[in-house]
Specification:
The complex is a heterodimer of chains A (661) and B (353). Chain A has 19 helices and 34 strands. With 661 residues, chain A is α+β, with helices and mostly antiparallel strands. In chain A, a hairpin with a 5-residue loop joins strand 29 and strand 30. The longest helix of chain A has 19 residues. Chain A is elongated. The termini of chain A are far apart. Chain B is of the alpha+beta class and 353 residues long. Chain B has eleven helices and nine strands. Chain B has a seven-stranded mixed sheet, sandwiched between helices. A two-stranded antiparallel ribbon of chain B has the order 2-3. The chains are: A alpha+beta (661), B alpha+beta (353).
C-alpha cells in the first residue's frame, strides 16, 4: 500500500540536509520505493509504496526511521529526532470514571485509553489541515482530525468515543466476538448485520458500540454535542480484523493497518501524542489516569544466523562489524559468538523471523547495487519435460503464418453464447465463481467459436484465415480439468484449401496419409459437416464445415507430437522413368472421392500415385503415375494397369470413363 | 582419316553454327539450333560418331571435347542475347508479395525470451493454467486469508474444494510452476526453469487484461547467490533490449521469496539517466526516471523449497517473473497505449507484427 508523506512533516522527525530528490533516489534503492514526488500545497509530498510486511513504515515517523538508516549508508548526515512526549499523565480536573472494560486477551492484545474533559470544538488549525489535505484526508474539526493526524504520523490507529454516550448506556466495554445476525450502524450511517465472529465492543446491554480497529459506530461516535472524549486504542488480533473488514468490505485505513500486525507497543506513544494535541488544540483536560491493559505483550524472539549463511546468499563476505552496525541502526540487538549471529529485532519488526529475513536487512542496507553481477557456474539441468514440444509449436506457428494464416490470441474464458457454440452443453463447462465481466464466464472447450467471433469482427477483410494454439478445458470429476493444447484453424476459404493447409502442416513433420473420416450427426461446434482427422491409428482431431460456410480444423498437439517425425524416410531416386497420364471419370453424386482414390491406388501394382487434378461438376480428373523399378514402361506395359483401374472404378463406384482408353 | 582432316570437319560445324546464330533472334530459334547441332541426330553428334575412322583416337577425343564446349558456350551466349530481346519490363513496378500471415506479438516475444534463456541453460516447461490453490498460493508461503493474497485478484473456479489441494483457481501468476518443477525433478536440483504461460486476474483497464502472460525463472542449486540473479537479469536485459541495457534490483516483499526485489531495466532511449542530453535539460518521455519497473524477483523462501521437498540448509535459489506484455511493449516503437489490443483479434493491429 502507498502512503503520502509531506517533506516538511518528515523533517519534524528527521534531522537531515538531504533534498527530496536525494531522499527519493537513495531510499528507493535500499528501502521502500519512493514512486513520485508531488508538489501539493507548496510542499514536496512523497508517494511511497510500503510493502505489506512493513506496516512499521506506514507512518511519517516510520519512514523517517528508515530514511535515517539509509541516508547514513550513503554518507549523508541523518538522524531520527527523539519524540518528546509527556509520559506521566495525571488527571488535571476532578476525575471522571473510566468505563468498565472487559477484554478477552485472545481478541485484543492491548487496550489503552484516557478520558478527556471539556473538549472544545475548535476548527482544525491551518498547519494540520494542510497536512491532512496533502495526505488526501478529509478535514472536519480538530476533535475528529486529531485521531487521523496521529495515526498518519505514528502508525497506530486510534478512536475518539463520545464519552457521555458511552457512559449513558452503562459505561461498559465488552470485547467479544459477535454472534450472527446482530446489527450495527457505522458512524457514516451504513447498517450492517454480523455473520458471527467479528470482534466488536458491546455495552452492558449487549448492544454493539464499536467495530474496533476498523470503524466506529454511530451510537458512540462524536457528534455536535460531544463535550468529553474517551481516547482509546485497542490491538485486535490481525486475522480477526481482516476477517471482519473483508466480510463487510469496510476497508478503512485503520483496518488495512491493523490486519498487518501493527506493534501494540506503539499504542501508548500514539495515546500520549493524541492527548498532547487535544490539550493544545481543543483545550481538553485530562480527566482520568491512563488505563492500560496489555495482556499480549511479547518479547521478540531472537533469530539465530550462522555467519556463513549470509555469504551463501550474498556471494561475498561482509565484515562482522559492518553486519552488526547495520542491524543495530535498524533497532536490532545482536550478539556474535562462534561464527553465529543472534539477532533480536525490535518489537515493531515482527517481519524479522527467520535467517533469510535478517540476511535481507543486511543485504538491502549494504546495497544490492554494491553486489557484483555474474552468471551461474553450476551444472546445467538436462532432464527435460517429455510432454511438451515448444519447437514443434513454434514451427507450426511460423509455417502457417508464412502460408498466409494469421495467429490470434483470444481469451480462454468466454460468454454463455460462445460457450454454447462449442456444441457442448453449458453445464458441461467449467465456470468461474467470480467472473469480472459477462463475456468471460466459462472456460472454453473449443477455440472455434472464439476464432469465428474474430473473423466476424474483422468483416472488412475479404477473406481471412486465422489460427490459435491454446488450451481447451474439459471438466473432470474431483480433479483438475483436462487442459488440452489445441491447434485450431478457421478460414473463410473453401474446405479443400483449409484441408490442404492442414496437410501441408503435417508434411512439415513428415506425416503423410492424413485421412478424414466423415462422421454423421456430430454436434461439434454446431458444424454442418464434420470429419475426424486420422493418421494411422491416431485420432488427431476434426475438420468441419461451419454454419457460416467457413471451414475449421482442430488438432490436439499431444496427438500430433505422437505422429510427428524429426526427419523423412529416404527412398532412393528411381532409375527408371515414370509414365504419367490423366484419366477423367464421371462419379455419381456424393461419392467420397477419398475412397475412390484409395481404391484406384490399389487397383494395380504399377500404379504408384493418384492425384486429384481437377473437378468439373461430376467429372473428376486424376493424374495417374505408373512406374516399376526394373525397366522403363512401354505403353503396352501400362495398358493392363489402366484397364484394371477403370474397371475397379466402374465396378465399385459406378464411375464412367470420359473418353476412351 | 587423319586427325587434321577430322579437325577441319569439326571446325566447319563451329563456323556453320556461328553463322546460324547470327540470325537467331529468339530463344526458340536458339533452342532449335541446339537440337540441330547437339541433338540426337545433330550434325555434331553425327560427326562425333566418325571418331572410329580417325587414326589417332586419343587426340580426336580431345578435339571432340573442346569443340563441344565451344558449341555450348556459343549457344549459351546466344541464349542470353535472345533473352534481352524480350518485352521491356518496368523494373520499378511494385513487387507482388505472396499472401503471408503473422505470428502473434506475444508468440514472438515468448520465442525470443525462450531463446535467450535457453542459451544459458534454462529449460522451458508448461504447467496447468487451471490449478489448485496449493500450488498457486499455499505452497508459496501464502497461508489462507493472508493479506498478501489481496494483491492477486484471483478468479475462482466453480468446482468442489479438494481436501489437500484447496480451491480450484485460474493461475494468477506463473509461480505455480515453482513447486511443480521441484516435484517434476523429484526434489533433485539443479533446477533452471523458465515457465511461460497464460495467467488470469480480475482486473481490466488500458494496462491490464483479465488474461495475460507471464514468464518465470527459477534456479535452485548449491551456492546460488543474489549475484547470480543479478547476472541473469543483466544478461536478459542486454539480450532483449540491446547492448548497454542494465538491470537493477530494489527491496520489495513477496511471501515466496526472501529477500525479495523489484526489478527495473534501464531505459534504452536515455540509458538510465532520465534525460536525452548530457546537460540534463530535455526529459526522456519514454520513461519516468531512467528506469522501467518490470517485475519481481527474490531468493526462494525456505518454506517454498521445503514445500518442494528441497532442504533449504543445503540449497539456495532465486526466482523472477513478470508480464510478457509489459516487457515486450517497453521496446522502442512498441509503446502500446492500450494492451487490450493484443487480445482483440483486430487484424489492423496484428498485421503490423
Amino acid at each position: 500500500m502507498n502512503i503520502l508523506i509531506p517533506h516538511t512533516w518528515l523533517k519534524e522527525h528527521l534531522e537531515t540536509e538531504a533534498d527530496p530528490k536525494t531522499i527519493q533516489k537513495n531510499v528507493s534503492l535500499c528501502g521502500p520505493s519512493v514512486e513520485r514526488i508531488y508538489d501539493i500545497e507548496g510542499d514536496n509530498v512523497y508517494d511511497i509504496e510500503v510493502t505489506t510486511n512493513r506496516v512499521d513504515s506506514m507512518s511519517v515517523r516510520g519512514i523517517a526511521r528508515e530514511t535515517a538508516v539509509i541516508l547514513k549508508q550513503f554518507d549523508i548526515k541523518a538522524e531520527l529526532k527523539p519524540l518528546t512526549l509527556l509520559e506521566d499523565l495525571q488527571p488535571e480536573v476532578e476525575p471522571l470514571p473510566l468505563p468498565k472494560i472487559i477484554n478477552d486477551p485472545e481478541l485484543s492484545k492491548r487496550v489503552i485509553c484516557v478520558v478527556l474533559q471539556g473538549v472544545k470544538r475548535n476548527p482544525t488549525p491551518e498547519w494540520m489541515a494542510k497536512r491532512l489535505l496533502q495526505t488526501e484526508q478529509n478535514v472536519h474539526d480538530a476533535v475528529i482530525d486529531i485521531t487521523n493526524y496521529v495515526t498518519h504520523e505514528l502508525g497506530h490507529p486510534c478512536h475518539a468515543f463520545d464519552y457521555d454516550k458511552l457512559m449513558n448506556t452503562g459505561g461498559e466495554i465488552n470485547i467479544v466476538e459477535a454472534k450472527s445476525n446482530e446489527t450495527f450502524t457505522t458512524l457514516d450511517g451504513n447498517e450492517f448485520t454480523t455473520v458471527g465472529g467479528e470482534v466488536v465492543f458491546k455495552n452492558g446491554e449487549g448492544e454493539i458500540i464499536d467495530l474496533p480497529s476498523i470503524k466506529g459506530t454511530v451510537n458512540t461516535s462524536i457528534d455536535d454535542s460531544t463535550q468529553n472524549v474517551l481516547l482509546l486504542l485497542e490491538s485486535i488480533t490481525a486475522e480477526k480484523v481482516r476477517f471482519a473488514s473483508m466480510t463487510h468490505a469496510i476497508r478503512t485505513t485503520a483496518a488495512q493497518l491493523m490486519e498487518k500486525h501493527v506493534d501494540p507497543e506503539l499504542a501508548k506513544t500514539v495515546l500520549l501524542r493524541g492527548v498532547e494535541l487535544y490539550r493544545e488544540l481543543c483545550e481538553a483536560k485530562i480527566a482520568s489516569p491512563i488505563y492500560d491493559d496489555f495482556p499480549g505483550k511479547v518479547e521478540p524472539t531472537p533469530v539465530i544466523v550462522p555467519l556463513h549463511r549470509i555469504t551463501d546468499y550474498l556471494g561475498l563476505t561482509i565484515e562482522t562489524d559492518r553486519i552488526v552496525s547495520i542491524l543495530e541502526t535498524l533497532g536490532c540487538t545482536t550478539t556474535v559468538s562462534d561464527e553465529v549471529l543472534t539477532v533480536t529485532p525490535p518489537t515493531f519488526r515482527p517481519d524479522i523471523a527467520i535467517p533469510a529475513d535478517v540476511i535481507e536487512e543486511i543485504a538491502r542496507i549494504y546495497g544490492y547495487h554494491n553486489l557484483p553481477s555474474t552468471l551461474m557456474d553450476t551444472p546445467i539441468p538436462t532432464t527435460k519435460p517429455s510432454d511438451v514440444d515448444f519447437v514443434l509449436e513454434n514451427r507450426i506457428k511460423h509455417f502457417l503464418a508464412n502460408i498466409g494464416w494469421q495467429e490470434i490470441y483470444s481469451y480462454s474464458m468466454v460468454s454463455e453464447a460462445i460457450a454454447k457454440q462449442s456444441g457442448y452443453a453449458l453445464d458441461g463447462h467449467l465456470a468461474l465463481q467470480n467472473p469480472l465481466t459477462d463475456d468471460r464466464i466459462y472456460m472454453r472447450r473449443s477455440l472455434v467459436p472464439s476464432l469465428e467471433e474474430i473473423i466476424a469482427q474483422n468483416a472488412r477483410e475479404e477473406h481471412l484465415s486465422v489460427f490459435e494454439i491454446a488450451n481447451v478445458y474439459h471438466p473432470l470429476a474431483h480433479q483438475l480439468p483436462s487442459q488440452e493444447l489445441m491447434l485450431t484453424m478457421v478460414s473463410t476459404d473453401q474446405y479443400t484449401t483449409v484441408k490442404g493447409a492442414l496437410e501441408a502442416v503435417m508434411c512439415q513433420f513428415f506425416v503423410e496419409n492424413v485421412k478424414v473420416k466423415p462422421i454423421d450427426g456430430s454436434h461439434l461446434c454446431n458444424s454442418v459437416q464434420c470429419g475426424e482427422v486420422w493418421v494411422g491409428n491416431n485420432l488427431l482431431g476434426s475438420i468441419m464445415v461451419l454454419p457460416t460456410g467457413h471451414t475449421a480444423a482442430e488438432l490436439q498437439i499431444s496427438q500430433l507430437m505422437k505422429v510427428a517425425q524429426k526427419h523423412p524416410t529416404y527412398h532412393s531416386i528411381p532409375k527408371t522413368a515414370e509414365v504419367r497420364e490423366d484419366i477423367t471419370l464421371t462419379l455419381p453424386e456424393k461419392t467420397l472421392v477419398g475412397e475412390v482414390i484409395k481404391t484406384l491406388q490399389s487397383s494395380h501394382e504399377l500404379i504408384t500415385s493418384i492425384e486429384l487434378k481437377d473437378v468439373y461438376h461430376q467429372n473428376y480428373t486424376f493424374a495417374i503415375t505408373y512406374w516399376q523399378p526394373e525397366e522403363n514402361l512401354s505403353s503396352a506395359d501400362v495398358e493392363p494397369a489402366r484397364k484394371a483401374l477403370v474397371e475397379a472404378a466402374e465396378a465399385q463406384y459406378s464411375a464412367q470413363l470420359v473418353g476412351e482408353i | 582419316m587423319t586427325t587434321a582432316e577430322y579437325s577441319q570437319k569439326l571446325d566447319t560445324v563451329v563456323t556453320e553454327l556461328k553463322t546460324a546464330l547470327q540470325s537467331a533472334t529468339s530463344s526458340e530459334t536458339v533452342e532449335a539450333l541446339k537440337t540441330e547441332y547437339l541433338g540426337k541426330k545433330g550434325s555434331f553428334t553425327l560427326l562425333s560418331k566418325q571418331i572410329k575412322d580417325v587414326d589417332d583416337k586419343k587426340e580426336a577425343g580431345q578435339l571432340l571435347n573442346t569443340t563441344k564446349q565451344t558449341l555450348e558456350d556459343m549457344l549459351a551466349t546466344a541464349r542470353t542475347t535472345a533473352a534481352k530481346k524480350l518485352a521491356w519490363i518496368d523494373l520499378t513496378m511494385p513487387g507482388k508479395k505472396p499472401e503471408v500471415g503473422h505470428t502473434h506479438p506475444v508468440s514472438q516475444a515468448m520465442e525470443e525470451i525462450t531463446h535467450i534463456f535457453e542459451q544459458i541453460g534454462f529449460t522451458r516447461v508448461r504447467y496447468p493454467e487451471v490449478d489448485w490453490d496449493h500450488y498457486v498460493f499455499e505452497a508459496l508461503n501464502m497461508p489462507k486469508s493472508h493479506p498478501a493474497r489481496d494483491e492477486w485478484e484471483t478468479f475462482f473456479v466453480d468446482a468442489p474444494v479438494d481436501n489437500q489441494m484447496g480451491k480450484m483457481v485460474l493461475t494468477t501468476h506463473t509461480s505455480n510452476g515453482q513447486v511443480r518443477e521441484m516435484e517434476r525433478l523429484n526434489s533433485q536440483p539443479p533446477i533452471r526453469m523458465i515457465n511461460i504461460a497464460r495467467c488470469y486476474r480480475r482486473q481490466q483497464d488500458a494496462t491490464h487484461t483479465q488474461m495475460f502472460h507471464q514468464f518465470e525463472g527459477l534456479v535452485v542449486d548449491k551456492g546460488i547467490t543474489i549475484q547470480h540473479l543479478k547476472g541473469t537479469l543483466d544478461y536478459f536485459a542486454e539480450q532483449f533490449y540491446g547492448p548497454g541495457t542494465k538491470s537493477r534490483i530494489r527491496p520489495f516483499h513477496f511471501q515466496f521469496t526472501e529477500p525479495s526485489f523489484e526489478v527495473d531495466f534501464s531505459c534504452q532511449i536515455c540509458h538510465g539517466t532520465g534525460y536525452l542530453d548530457d546537460a540534463e535539460t530535455q526529459k526522456c518521455r519514454f520513461c519516468k526516471s531512467g528506469w522501467h519497473e518490470v517485475g519481481g524477483a527474490g531468493m526462494v523462501h525456505p518454506n517454498v523449497l521445503k514445500a518442494g521437498g528441497i532442504d533449504p540448509d543445503e540449497y539456495t535459489g532465486f526466482a523472477f517473473g513478470w508480464g510478457i506484455e509489459r516487457t515486450y511493449t517497453l521496446k522502442e516503437g512498441l509503446n502500446l497505449d492500450d494492451i487490450r489490443l493484443l487480445y482483440s483479434g483486430d487484424l489492423r493491429f496484428l498485421h503490423q507484427f
